[in-house]
Amino acid sequence: MYLKRLHIQGFKSFADKTKIEFKKGITGIVGPNGSGKSNVSDAIRWVLGEQSIKTLRGNKMEDVIFSGTDKRKPLGYAEVTIVFDNKDGTIPIEYSEVSVTRRMFRSGESEYYINKNACRLKDIKELFMDTGVGKDGYSIIGQGRVDEILSTKSEDRRHIFEEAAGIVKYKTRKEESEKK
Ligand code: ATP
Ligand code: MG
After folding, report:
1. Which residue, 91, 17, 16, is CA-closest to 48?
2. What's the CATH code of the domain at 14?
3. Residue with the larger pLDDT of the pair 55 and 114
């Protein structure tokens, strides 16, 4: 599985419909300060369900919607679609390409889609559980996460290994059944 494509529209500085293609292997994003490099990684976290605006470097959730410039009006909603190549079947769904879309309006309501079918955020979380992908998966390593991985506290490192070992799914199910 690998990240194939991102479609961004109305998210932070991306007012226009923008398509970013990724190839297998290493991709670097370069550009001047303030050109939107970090907004690309914010878009990836957001579409995978990030709910913490602090993590997305804003003050309120609305801050992820294009807020306008001197020449351009603010937009009414933000939409991001992330596309994964799933030919190797890492994502447990019968599609060779898997897309996840999130759309959010200024009212704060978010809509989620898997391969264009409306779904709940919970469905996205479950689909990517134990794949390493996801807002807390080990495939996104923010600055703070480096400390977590290097931490000498075993509980901090445990979650990362649990996800890699593929047991988070079972742990979550057990916790949910114990709550009932
Ligand atoms: P650096 O090299 O300094 O890390 P960067 O390329 O990572 O820069 P970003 O942080 O991705 O830059 O982008 C910052 C820009 O995004 C700023 O110009 C900011 O005004 C713009 N921006 C953030 N949120 C919005 C929004 N909601 N609407 C419009 N522009 C936004
Ligand atoms: Mg940056």
Report:
1. 91
2. 3.40.50.300
3. 114
